Task: inverse folding
C-alpha cells in the first residue's frame, strides 16, 4: 500500500458526497501536528497487514444463538 497523500484525500472529498472536510483537516490526517489524530497512517498500515493474513484454514463463524 502506498503512503497516504493529501491528493488522495482531496480527490475523495471532491468526488464523493460526504462531510465537507477543509484542507487543514485533511492535512492533519496526512501530516499530524496537533496530536489529535496521530496514528491515521499507522492504522492504515495495520489494516493492510490484516488484509494480507491468509484465512484459508479458518472455519466460518458459527451461528449466533440467543436463549429466550
Result:
Amino acid at each position: 500500500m502506498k503512503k497516504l497523500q493529501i491528493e488522495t484525500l482531496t480527490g475523495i472529498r471532491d468526488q464523493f458526497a460526504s462531510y465537507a472536510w477543509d484542507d487543514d483537516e485533511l492535512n492533519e490526517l496526512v501530516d499530524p501536528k496537533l496530536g489529535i489524530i496521530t496514528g491515521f497512517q499507522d492504522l492504515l498500515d495495520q489494516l493492510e497487514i490484516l488484509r494480507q493474513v491468509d484465512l484459508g484454514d479458518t472455519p466460518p463463524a458459527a451461528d449466533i444463538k440467543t436463549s429466550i
Q: What stands out?
A: DSSP finds three helices and no strands in the chain.
